[in-house]
Amino acid sequence: MKARPIVLLAGAATTVALLTGCEELQQALPESAAPAPPAAPAPAGPVSAQLAQLQIQPEDTGAHYDRDDWLTDWAANGECTTRETVLRQQGQGVAVNEECAPTAGTWRSSYDGVTTSNPRDLQIDHIVPLAEAARSGPVVDGRRQRPGDWPPAQRQAYANDIEGLIAVTGSSNQSKSDGDPARWLPSQDPCGYVANWVRVKKKYNLSTDQAEHDAIVAVLAKCPA
Fold this sequence. Notes:
single chain; two-stranded antiparallel sheet
């Protein structure tokens, strides 16, 4: 039987741009049983500027959400699927077969710091979850704009947007579920995580609720400038 060709990506694949430029917090965010004081202003910078441009609106809990309306399977992205493309971009020393499936490589889950050489250990997470996007429509001219009402092609484009996806361990992805930063933050690199969260919301003109906004400000206040 003829062996299937193996394609080795030249060089170590660098982590996608959305993950760079941020460092891990030097200490955990403080915990207190007492009501937290108002968050200190976040340092000036691109993330803070983008956050300031997001509408602060209560989450639209009445918005209809059905995952199948957004994603039933990963779309084709050239010769690869969206999942395969993310794995190729976010791994190191990745080799793929003629069908674009990874056959070798190393991946680090930025949510929990776990490193694996088995792509089956990884899930592809939407940084801003699909359900969160569906609930985060801005108010325009006094009317709530519901992303769940986007045309099917637009919802599928969001679900397959490489810039909003990240390869992480299944356990960390399931721990996050569809929580926003007020309810869940990764144990590793919360600065990078909230920066990417804000960037995705800005790109798609999504709103943020007050608790979510304040949680992001609290993280940014502890991040390197």
